[in-house]
Amino acid sequence: MKQKFFFIGFILLLLATSVIGQSKKDSLISKIIDAENDSIKLGLLTDIGDIYYDTNADSAIHYYKQAIILAEKLNGRRTIAECYISTGQCFEEKNLYKQSLDFFFKALNLYNGLDDKDGLSVAYNNIGDSYSLLNSLAKALENYTRALSLYRELGDKDKISTVFIDIGNIYYTREMYSKAKSYYSEALKICEELDDKAGISICKINIGNVLSDQGRLDESIDYYKEALKTERHLGSKEGIASVFNNIGDTYISKGEYSRAMYYLFKSLGIAEEINDSELISLACLNISTAKIKQKKYNEAITFANRSLKLAKQIGNLSYQAENFSNLATAYEKLENYSKAYESHKLSDQLNDSILNKEEHKRFEQLDALYQLEKNQQEINTLTQDKEFKEKQLGYQRSIISGLIIGGAIFLLLFFLLFRQQKAKSKALKILSAQKEEIQKMHDEIEIQRDYLNELNATKDKFFSIMAHDLKNPFNSIAGFSDLMIENFNDLNEDENRRFLKLIKNASSQALSLLQNLLLWARSQTGSLEFQPTEVNIKERIIDTVSLIEIQAAKKNIKIQTEFISECYIKVDVNMLDTILRNLLSNAVKYTNTNGKVTVTVNSSNNHCEISVKDNGIGISKKDIDKLFRIESKFSSMGTANEQGSGLGLILCKDFVNRHGGEIYAKGEPGKGSEFTFTLPKA
């Protein structure tokens, strides 16, 4: 499934005052008390609402409602309508679409009474937005059509292109691809005329979506790459993540699943960085689809469940239906027929809700009305053109006899100029085609460069470990062994025992590093099996703590466990043990003698949260950002000069992500560190 770019502007009417900076908020609030009259107080309330509009929807709603009460007292109907629109948009931002519609309709009634076409167009546009987000597409189209008619009367090209995209998205949702592409193309023409870079990118992404769904996959990728270049120029992380998602989805359609996974995980990483629930849900949904194609059904279930949880939170019925469909397929392949049946049943129910017959019939009627209006406009335009041409022809007939000779000369000159211009135009087209081809090659090289940079980082990490981190313990083993052999007769029993302990420590360090290295290598090559089973997290933690206590005892470090709630999870046991072992080993490594390490287990609705906290040397925020990135090459010595490669935390993040969980760290230098990760409940 692709990301559709709904160019829903949530068009905020310009209020009587200009936008006021955040730094003036407290000053404005204090001025309300000292306001000389209600008119000044009303202006201050709307200004404060505007300040909160982009940062705190609840606070904005509070001040807009106070402004409405005061405006009613002053009989300021236009101000009331403007506040209704702003309040509705805040509810829309909170995904409370029924409440937003209530305020938009109140504004519509007021604008009708004022005969305010500009206000009416904004109200209809916002009503269409809310209905579209509620997936009530027929009602959305009805209101978009009314807004479009008013925008045409007002000559507002920017808003016309916005509505064209919104209507195109409705047709795309209905799988009426030819009409969707027609509206997107009309919007693209206007955006290019206005030099609207963001609008151009959105149109190209949506046209790419249409071409992909029509099976014209290579053409769609070309449009996506053009849009990707624009989004990078604009610095839009949301836009970049969306394009990566769409490219990944298209590669799924092409059957190139490894390449698809590369783009989809790129999209997921950026979506998690900006905390965009809808994009995270969409990326996980598409990863689930790709995993099914790769016959990795357990991993498909993990990502589908993560996507489904977010889709329910944001109320996206389409994502929910697709996820239940994926779950049905995966469970069926795993021969869990009861869950497969239940998932299939829920998918069908959601699809029936989205596409009911009565809604579809209403949709077709509204489309016919819009086409009639469009045709009538075209007829009126042609009639005006015909009348103009008839008048022009009469004028030409009155003077044609005096212009025959001049016309012949003009035609001859025109013919010569035409030939010259045609040759020039042909040359320009050739140059333009060559430039376009070079640009496509440049974009492809840029994407390949990102991919190769990631591969190089992986390679560099591998060779760094082989050349340095493994060399040190083996050098120690060889060195101490040589000393014992050469001085065997001169060493007493205590000295021999000390050298043997040093050799044992070095070999244990090398073994631990080799275990992580082999696991990481298997993970990177795809040969590591993912076999989740239901386990009690408490048992696994107790077993792992008993192993690490030997290491901790050498530094007199106490390991405590706090099981706030009982928690059963569905995980790959080997991966879980590796995560716990690495986190506990790191905590002991960076904790001073006589220190303390605490393992805490807590439970949320769908996840189990495990934290490993120490009171050791801590870590700076700058270094936290490097911990889980393979290209950062970050490692440091322990409090007893223990060696570290940084590979363990990278492995932890990889394994946690495979389960659909998250891992993060916090800490301060000198105050210890805390590593927390989440895993899905059974």
Question: What would you say this structure looks like, in words?
Answer:
Keywords: ATP-binding, Cell membrane, Kinase, Membrane, Nucleotide-binding, Phosphoprotein, Transferase, Transmembrane, Transmembrane helix, Two-component regulatory system. The chain is an alpha+beta fold and 682 residues long. Among the domains are: 23-155, Serine Threonine Protein Phosphatase 5, Tetratricopeptide repeat (Alpha Horseshoe); 403-469; 470-526, no CATH class; 529-680, Heat Shock Protein 90 (2-Layer Sandwich), CATH 3.30.565. The chain is 73% helix and 7% strand. The strands form 2 sheets. A 5-stranded mixed beta sheet has the order 2-4-5-7-6. It has a two-stranded antiparallel ribbon with strand order 1-3. Helix 9 (177-194) runs antiparallel to helix 10, helix 12 (237-254) runs parallel beside helix 14 (277-293) and helix 20 (471-486) runs antiparallel to helix 21. The radius of gyration is 33 Å and the shape is globular. The model is unreliable at 6-22 (pLDDT under 50).
* Overall radius of gyration: 33 Å
Strand line-up in the sheet with most strands: 2-4-5-7-6
Principal-axes shape call: globular
CATH architecture tag of the domain at 529-680: 2-Layer Sandwich
In short:
This protein is an alpha+beta fold.
Topology:
Elements: H1 25-33, H2 38-53, H3 57-74, H4 77-93, H5 97-114, H6 117-133, H7 137-154, H8 157-173, H9 177-194, H10 197-213, H11 217-234, H12 237-254, H13 257-273, H14 277-293, H15 297-314, H16 317-333, H17 337-354, H18 357-399, H19 404-469, H20 471-486, H21 493-525, E1 532-536, H22 537-553, E2 558-563, E3 568-572, H23 573-589, E4 596-603, E5 607-614, H24 621-624, H25 647-658, E6 663-667, E7 673-680
Parallel strand pairs: 2-4
Antiparallel strand pairs: 1-3, 4-5, 5-7, 6-7
Helix pairs in contact: 1-2, 2-3, 3-4, 4-5, 4-6, 5-6, 6-7, 7-8, 7-18, 8-9, 8-10, 9-10, 10-11, 11-12, 12-13, 12-14, 13-14, 14-15, 14-16, 15-16, 16-17, 20-21, 21-25, 22-23, 23-25
